[in-house]
Amino acid sequence: MAISDETKDRFNAAVGVAKVSLASTVLQTSYSSFYTSMGECDEESMTIVTVGWIPFVIYVGYKNSYPQPSLIKLITPLA
Asked: Which of 1-5, 9-13, 16-20, 27-31 has the lowest mean pLDDT?
């Protein structure tokens, strides 16, 4: 059974559309997972910054002060 050129062209067009559709679906899935992971990264970094801000400020103040207080007075100010 011979296949006509018109049938071959229709088949190739259908396969081409399927390839483009599949590629766009893969890209959309990749982008959505990328943005989801970036959102999770943003939440984690905000938690780290929020929790670490005060100890960082205390450390910088301790290192830049003259004369440096003893470490026990830094940890327990009432000592």
From this structure: 27-31
Residue 73 contacts residue 79 (beta carbons within 8 Å): yes
Question: pLDDT higher for 7 or 21?
Answer: 7
Q: What is the secondary structure of the chain as a DSSP string?
A: -PPPHHHHHHHHHHHHHHHHHHHHHHHHHHHHHHHHHHHHHHHHHHHHHHHHHHHHHHHHHHHH-SSPPPHHHHH-TT-
Residue 55: burial class (beta carbons within 10 Å; 0-12, 13-18, 19+): exposed
Which amino acid belongs to residue 59? Y
Whether residue 18 has pLDDT greater than 60: no
| Dist. CA 52–CA 46, nearest whole Å | 10
Residue type for 67, please?
P
pTM, 2 dp: 0.39
